[in-house]
């Protein structure tokens, strides 16, 4: 008996709308951005966003798609990046040899290869475990590599790291990669390649098996697959794409320091992926954009920006476990089901609640920060004066917080009653 | 006589001092539908786990088509043509029904761990997936998340994943547990269809199902097979009746009637 299997699959137009169109729009966005004449600061920010998007997606191949939490994924960025900075120097120093024919544009490919190699070596023992032991091993590896980085100066350059020059070697596509807007095209190209390839990966048999292994490793064994092998292969790819983002960063920043493979960027990518939403492919993209923006801009406004980031992370984990992407897609679904007014109303109330709480949190953090510094500086937002001993300060620290908590709980209870 | 498809020789399993399986010998012929029954805690599921490779044997051996499979990994045994289901639904809960079955199909069609192909473009895979979904009657629920299926449908999906790889030996662990009468009837019809031309080994508590389905029955009590034979022989066996004293003995009466 033959069955009409085509009816099961999404239709051609659905496939186009869900898989191809978003990529086309993404490419268009990347192409259009430079026509708005972004400043040098904006370009640098955009470039770092591209690098972090690739890194966060690579990280989420493990956490979201394979169910493997790692605390040390920056190791692969660092190794890929360091390798690429060395190549930059080899290209610079070469005189007609192999390296003299290598364009700097190809750095992400070298980073990819190095990341894959590192993933293949480190993943071999660590992928024999999953769950908590895997996470602990990743933490250990990260510490180990950070220690290595300070010990082996010839490769890692000690505390100062090593630097290179992106303007050497043959040009590719007429890009000298000197000015930042040319680096933008380089980053945009590789960001698109990385996003497209990692999306394609989710559609392959191995990509599907990685989800199956995440859901139920026991059953995977009984459909003919070795879950350890699945994890290992995914790990290599994840390391490779992380290394690719390292290659991108090597060209953008022209320097790599041991800090780049420490626990700090490893933690940052975890936060980015989680805030964006690890259950969705696009989640880490959104998270990387938000986090990169916060890293570079919020730090200008407030010395306490890491505190805000930490609070945001905790709140996302506790209250919006599906992250930004979960909210976006949830809202989109509701709109399609014709519940726009209801959802918008709820969203507005929640947003108001969160804003009220944010007012108090900001007052508390900023006043406390200034107080702890001991220079007697006063927090003066919008012409207000909020010294620690003023009654107004305490009112602002308590009343909006209480009101915000009451409002969000009220909305949540209402929503549950329906 | 041909070599048996599945041959267990003096299979033993102990967990510490507890001897759960104490020397099981069993031969199952090609195309046979063999049921294992026994009181709770007799070791039926343990025996399944030993044959399918989830547990390692303390001693003895298991052969599949004359090849020793004891000591091999579950995925290796699966590739050799033995597939099993679980007593508790063991599905990929975050994937759709179709994706669940598709994962079960992949290895048998030779797509292994490939990362250079788009699953959506693999015609063979899509066709076989649809064929199996149709056979088990889940076609109309193909795109639902597996976790949202009603219980009986999850059990059906469990069987669908088990048969998806086209294994010649199918082992079902209590496929009708927790089902209503009508659901059980449908499950039995499905099992008969799925096991056609294959060798079936089934653990089941519902005596109606066992006596209706099995060619031969083995009775496992305290880790030992106390009787093996045709349903009529098992019914009349006094040792079996003794092991099943009380409530379950009534099932035998019911099955005889």
TrEMBL record, chain B:
<keyword id="KW-0547">Nucleotide-binding</keyword>
<dbReference type="Pfam" id="PF12399">
    <property type="entry name" value="BCA_ABC_TP_C"/>
</dbReference>
<dbReference type="InterPro" id="IPR027417">
    <property type="entry name" value="P-loop_NTPase"/>
</dbReference>
<dbReference type="InterPro" id="IPR032823">
    <property type="entry name" value="BCA_ABC_TP_C"/>
</dbReference>
<keyword id="KW-0067">ATP-binding</keyword>
<dbReference type="GO" id="GO:0005886">
    <property type="term" value="C:plasma membrane"/>
</dbReference>
<protein>
    <submittedName>
        <fullName>ATP-binding cassette domain-containing protein</fullName>
    </submittedName>
</protein>
<dbReference type="InterPro" id="IPR003593">
    <property type="entry name" value="AAA+_ATPase"/>
</dbReference>
<dbReference type="GO" id="GO:0005524">
    <property type="term" value="F:ATP binding"/>
</dbReference>
<keyword id="KW-0813">Transport</keyword>
<dbReference type="GO" id="GO:0016887">
    <property type="term" value="F:ATP hydrolysis activity"/>
</dbReference>
<feature type="domain" description="ABC transporter">
    <location>
        <begin position="6"/>
        <end position="247"/>
    </location>
</feature>
<dbReference type="InterPro" id="IPR003439">
    <property type="entry name" value="ABC_transporter-like_ATP-bd"/>
</dbReference>
<dbReference type="InterPro" id="IPR051120">
    <property type="entry name" value="ABC_AA/LPS_Transport"/>
</dbReference>
<dbReference type="Pfam" id="PF00005">
    <property type="entry name" value="ABC_tran"/>
</dbReference>
């Amino acid at each position: 008996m033959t069955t009409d299997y085509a009816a099961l699959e999404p239709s051609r137009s659905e496939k186009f709308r869900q898989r191809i169109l978003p990529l086309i729009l993404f490419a268009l966005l990347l192409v259009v951005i430079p026509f708005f004449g972004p400043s040098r600061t904006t370009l640098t920010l955009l470039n770092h966003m591209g690098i972090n998007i690739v890194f966060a997606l690579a990280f989420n191949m493990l956490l979201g798609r394979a169910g493997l939490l790692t605390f040390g994924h920056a190791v692969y960025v660092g190794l890929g990046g360091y390798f690429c900075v060395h190549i930059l120097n080899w290209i610079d120093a070469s005189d007609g040899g192999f390296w003299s024919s290598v364009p700097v544009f190809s750095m992400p490919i070298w980073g990819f290869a190095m990341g894959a190699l590192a993933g293949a070596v480190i993943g071999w023992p660590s992928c024999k475990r999953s769950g908590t032991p895997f996470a602990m091993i990743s933490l250990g590896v990260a510490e180990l590599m950070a220690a290595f980085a300070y010990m082996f100066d010839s490769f890692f350059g000690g505390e100062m790291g090593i630097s290179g020059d992106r303007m050497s070697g043959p040009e590719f596509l007429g890009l000298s990669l000197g000015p930042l807007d040319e680096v933008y095209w380089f980053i945009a190209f590789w960001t698109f390649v990385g996003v497209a390839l990692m999306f394609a990966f989710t559609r392959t048999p191995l990509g599907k098996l990685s989800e199956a292994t995440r859901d139920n490793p026991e059953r995977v064994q009984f459909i003919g697959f070795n879950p350890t092998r699945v994890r290992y292969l995914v790990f290599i790819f994840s390391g490779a794409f992380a290394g690719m983002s390292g290659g991108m960063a090597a060209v953008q920043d022209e320097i790599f320091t041991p800090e780049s493979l420490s626990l700090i960027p490893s933690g940052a990518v975890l936060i980015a992926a989680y805030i964006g939403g690890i259950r969705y492919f696009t989640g880490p993209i959104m998270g990387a954009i938000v986090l990169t923006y916060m890293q570079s801009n919020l730090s200008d406004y407030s010395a306490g920006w890491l505190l805000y980031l930490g609070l945001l992370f905790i709140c996302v984990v506790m209250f919006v476990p599906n992250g930004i992407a979960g909210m976006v897609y949830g809202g989109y679904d509701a709109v399609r089901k014709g519940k726009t007014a209801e959802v918008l109303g709820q969203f507005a109330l929640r947003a108001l609640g969160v804003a009220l709480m944010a007012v108090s949190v900001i007052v508390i953090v900023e006043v406390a920060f200034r107080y702890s510094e001991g220079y007697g500086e006063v927090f003066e937002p919008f012409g207000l004066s909020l010294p620690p001993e003023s009654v107004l300060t305490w009112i602002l620290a308590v009343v909006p917080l209480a009101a915000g908590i009451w409002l969000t709980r009220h909305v949540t209870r209402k929503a549950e009653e329906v | 006589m041909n070599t048996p498809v599945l041959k267990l020789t003096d299979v033993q399993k102990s967990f510490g001092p507890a001897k759960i399986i104490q020397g099981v010998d069993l031969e199952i012929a090609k195309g046979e539908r063999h049921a294992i029954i026994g009181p709770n805690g007799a070791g039926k599921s343990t025996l399944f786990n030993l044959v399918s490779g989830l547990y390692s044997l303390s001693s003895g051996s298991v052969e599949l088509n004359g090849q020793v499979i004891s000591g091999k990994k579950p995925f290796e045994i699966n590739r050799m043509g033995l597939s099993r289901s679980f007593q508790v639904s063991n599905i990929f809960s975050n994937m759709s029904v179709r994706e669940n079955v598709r994962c079960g199909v992949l290895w048998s069609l030779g797509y292994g761990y490939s990362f250079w192909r788009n699953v959506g473009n693999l015609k063979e895979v899509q066709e076989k997936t649809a064929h199996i979904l149709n056979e088990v009657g889940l076609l109309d629920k193909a795109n639902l998340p597996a976790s949202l299926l009603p219980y009986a449908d999850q059990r059906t999906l469990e069987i669908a994943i088990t048969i998806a790889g086209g294994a010649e030996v199918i082992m079902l662990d209590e496929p009708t547990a927790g089902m209503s009468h009508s659901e059980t009837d449908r499950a039995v019809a499905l099992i008969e269809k799925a096991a056609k031309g294959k060798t079936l080994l089934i653990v089941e508590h519902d005596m109606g199902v066992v006596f209706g389905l099995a060619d031969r029955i083995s009775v496992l009590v305290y880790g030992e097979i106390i009787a093996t034979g045709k349903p009529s022989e098992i019914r009349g066996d006094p040792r079996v009746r003794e092991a099943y004293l009380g409530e379950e003995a009534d099932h035998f009466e019911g099955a005889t009637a």
